[in-house]
Amino acid sequence: MMGEFDAIRPYDDAEVPAVLARLLSDQAFLDILTHFRFPRTAGAFSWALKPLIAHRLRKEFASVTNVATLQDKVEYYVDKTIDRATDGVTYTGVEQFKSGSAYLFLANHRDIVMDPAFVNYAVYHAGLPTPRIAIGDNLLQKPFVSDLMRLNKSFIVHRSLSGRREKLAAYQLLSAYISHSIRKDCQSIWIAQAEGRAKDGDDRTDSAILKMFHMSRKDEPFGEVIRSLNLTPVSISYEYDPCDQAKARELYLRATTGSYTKAPGEDDQSIAKGITGYKGRVHVNFAPPISEVFEDTKQLAAEVDRLILGGYRLFPVHYLAYAQWADADPSLQVPRAEEVFGEEELAQAREEWQSRLDECPVEQQPYLVVQYATPVRNQYRVKAGLPL
């Protein structure tokens, strides 16, 4: 029997062996793994390396017959990647979660793959079941990406529909699935606070997403529906963004030409750079689930923003960028970096920040600065109780 959510839901345990077999014979997938594993030799020797990698993975994953075992195996690789590409991950707020409860994690969005990966990491290491992850169908152009994501508890958000009725039906289904997952399956959900990454560092909740949560339960009051979903705002802070130069270039081109067209394969490059690029320190903060009843999406969006921006961890680089920002707000009481951080930590940050500025074409530098400076302005506005 076809289930009502089959078109978007993650794979279940019974489907795991067949999907794994399909993945391990997918040439495009094996190509990427070969390049990831052997970056220097993959080009010339990929014909010889690919079958070896496929053989090793088939052996390693032969015993995997369900999603939980797969996640345990994948966790080893995630931990290794995190060790290589960060100076450590810290998290606050995980101790509040109760096992046997499910949560709707609504997070700021900076990196396509790593945002949900770091939330997973925090939840997994706290000994709780990892959430199901919302992923836009615009990122699933290759069949293996879709397989990979749906194996790892991702469900699909149909973004590339153009007709109004199709869009409405897709949102309705998504709304019903999220509600079903949390209330019936007792499985948490991760979803970004807005479509697309906040490329200018300005994290804001799109009230259309909050409206979508309510769509499938229109006959119940909005505030009660939100409360029943355990909506938990999450702030993810990267000390450094591996994609900051690409974002600066895009912002510059948008500002000077009025538009920006992605090159073919650009999302794939962002994903690869986001996973493997240097991030410095990373912090994930979970705010308490929203318990107050909000009457409408606008009020709720303002509260979620307050919690996400207030829970964001500011690193030395953010203060350094803010001090250089042409649009800094003189009325905000923002201290200088020297007043907040020790000498050694600051010297390190100055060196890293300078090298990023040097790498960036002069005309694009203001767009690099804005990415790191905006979270400072936002957080100090929250602290001062000012409207955002």
Characterise the protein shown here.
This protein is of the alpha/beta class and 388 residues long. Among the domains are: 89-238 and 261-268 and 276-311, Glycerol-3-phosphate (1)-acyltransferase (3-Layer(aba) Sandwich), CATH 3.40.1130; 314-388, no CATH class. It has 16 helices and 7 strands. It has a 7-stranded mixed β-sheet with strand order 1-7-6-2-5-3-4, with helices on both faces. Helix 6 links the parallel strand 3 (132-136) and strand 4. The chain is globular, with a radius of gyration of 21 Å.
Characteristic key phrases:
388 residues, alpha/beta, Glycerol-3-phosphate (1)-acyltransferase, seven-stranded mixed sheet, 7 strands, 52% helix, globular
CATH superfamily of one domain: Glycerol-3-phosphate (1)-acyltransferase
The SS-based structural class is alpha/beta
Estimated radius of gyration: 21 Å
The CATH architecture classification of one domain is 3-Layer(aba) Sandwich
Which outline best applies? globular
Supply the CATH class of one domain. Answer: Alpha Beta
| Uncertain stretches | none
CATH topology descriptor of one domain: Glycerol-3-phosphate (1)-acyltransferase
The largest β sheet comes out as: 7 strands, mixed
Straight-line N-to-C gap: 49 Å
What's the number of extended β-strand segments?
7
In DSSP terms (H or I, runs of 4 or more residues), the helix count works out at: 16
Mean pLDDT: 92
The ordered string of helix (H) and strand (E) elements is HHHHEEHEHEHEHHEHHEHHHHH
